[in-house]
């Protein structure tokens, strides 16, 4: 089934070129079906790139999805045209009275900042509090996962000695968990972050359960026992070249970054990286949409 997106959203053409089933608003109006209403809080600097990443894996679901885009009004984006934000994005003030089947909170490259020093922390806290009553299930990604664990459960992050960047192997902690349905016993996921959460802190919280982890990358998937909060510390939404773009950016900035682990063939940055995590990414999002959103949400959201 397709994802329903605004007629003129730039990501539409890119997704159609990749044979992703998208449906613009005009066509969707002719169908008598209640799609899942999914809101994306996009905190990433390159918002248009992140839109494409997330819409790509949402579009692989067998469910019809009506996607809305949200941004924080207390932070002025320097990397996304104001016209794009004005045309396609809303703020929490615009949607506060609405109900949604699901919410996705993206990452942001601000792991080194204390949460309270983030200039939109107050607004983000308002959104996360609002989600408790207005959203069936929320999926938090990377820094968004750390922020969610801190806000909802008081679990803090810890800065790492060096940036974690690369493709890492993960295993399942509880294969019976619905979010992991259909997963291989081992699978790979991209990570790109400078902070981490401690397993011992998660284990102390009875309302949380660890679903997947990696010997090299640490905790990967955490879920609340009621399924309303899902935390993903990696970046399953990344495409084949996202880590390369980050590596090239940091190299050009003179940061002397490490070569992303297990990313380039033979760890040679002159070679073309291969996409090895798409199946897992699609399965993760499909399972979340089916078991934690579709199976739990009321037919009449209001």
UniProtKB/TrEMBL annotation:
<keyword id="KW-0486">Methionine biosynthesis</keyword>
<dbReference type="InterPro" id="IPR033752">
    <property type="entry name" value="MetA_family"/>
</dbReference>
<keyword id="KW-0963">Cytoplasm</keyword>
<feature type="site" description="Important for substrate specificity">
    <location>
        <position position="192"/>
    </location>
</feature>
<feature type="binding site">
    <location>
        <position position="192"/>
    </location>
    <ligand>
        <name>substrate</name>
    </ligand>
</feature>
<feature type="binding site">
    <location>
        <position position="249"/>
    </location>
    <ligand>
        <name>substrate</name>
    </ligand>
</feature>
<comment type="function">
    <text>Transfers an acetyl group from acetyl-CoA to L-homoserine, forming acetyl-L-homoserine.</text>
</comment>
<dbReference type="Pfam" id="PF04204">
    <property type="entry name" value="HTS"/>
</dbReference>
<keyword id="KW-0012">Acyltransferase</keyword>
<comment type="pathway">
    <text>Amino-acid biosynthesis; L-methionine biosynthesis via de novo pathway; O-acetyl-L-homoserine from L-homoserine: step 1/1.</text>
</comment>
<dbReference type="InterPro" id="IPR005697">
    <property type="entry name" value="HST_MetA"/>
</dbReference>
<protein>
    <recommendedName>
        <fullName>Homoserine O-acetyltransferase</fullName>
        <ecNumber>2.3.1.31</ecNumber>
    </recommendedName>
</protein>
<feature type="active site">
    <location>
        <position position="237"/>
    </location>
</feature>
<dbReference type="GO" id="GO:0008899">
    <property type="term" value="F:homoserine O-succinyltransferase activity"/>
</dbReference>
<feature type="active site" description="Proton acceptor">
    <location>
        <position position="235"/>
    </location>
</feature>
<keyword id="KW-0028">Amino-acid biosynthesis</keyword>
<comment type="similarity">
    <text>Belongs to the MetA family.</text>
</comment>
<feature type="active site" description="Acyl-thioester intermediate">
    <location>
        <position position="142"/>
    </location>
</feature>
<keyword id="KW-0808">Transferase</keyword>
<feature type="site" description="Important for acyl-CoA specificity">
    <location>
        <position position="111"/>
    </location>
</feature>
<dbReference type="InterPro" id="IPR029062">
    <property type="entry name" value="Class_I_gatase-like"/>
</dbReference>
<feature type="binding site">
    <location>
        <position position="163"/>
    </location>
    <ligand>
        <name>substrate</name>
    </ligand>
</feature>
């Amino acid at each position: 089934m397709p994802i329903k997106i605004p007629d003129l959203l730039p990501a539409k053409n890119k997704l159609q070129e990749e044979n992703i089933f998208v449906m613009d608003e005009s066509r969707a109006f002719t169908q008598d079906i209640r799609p899942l209403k999914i809101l994306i809080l996009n905190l990433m600097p390159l918002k248009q790139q992140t839109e494409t990443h997330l819409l790509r894996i949402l579009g692989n679901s067998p469910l019809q999805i009506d996607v809305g885009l949200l941004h924080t009004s207390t932070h002025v984006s320097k990397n996304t045209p104001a016209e794009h934000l004005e045309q396609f994005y809303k703020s929490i003030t615009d949607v506060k009275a609405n109900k949604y089947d699901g919410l996705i909170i993206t990452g942001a490259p601000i792991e080194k900042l204390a949460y309270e020093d983030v200039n939109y922390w107050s607004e983000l806290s308002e959104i996360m509090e609002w989600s408790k009553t207005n959203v069936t299930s929320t999926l938090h990604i990377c820094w968004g996962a750390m922020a969610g664990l801190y806000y909802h459960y008081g679990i803090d992050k810890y800065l790492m000695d060096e940036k974690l960047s690369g493709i890492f192997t993960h295993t399942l902690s509880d294969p019976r968990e619905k979010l992991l349905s259909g997963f291989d016993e081992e699978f790979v996921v991209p990570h790109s972050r400078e902070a981490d959460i401690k397993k011992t802190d998660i284990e102390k919280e009875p309302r949380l359960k660890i679903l997947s982890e990696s010997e090299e990358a640490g905790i990967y998937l955490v879920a609340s026992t009621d399924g309303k909060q899902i935390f993903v510390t990696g970046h399953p939404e990344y495409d084949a070249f996202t880590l390369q773009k980050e590596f090239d950016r940091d190299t050009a900035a003179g940061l002397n970054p490490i070569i992303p682990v297990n990313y380039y063939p033979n760890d040679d940055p002159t070679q073309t990286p291969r996409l090895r995590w798409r199946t897992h990414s699609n399965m993760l999002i499909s399972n979340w949409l089916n078991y934690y959103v579709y199976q739990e949400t009321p037919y009449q959201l209001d």
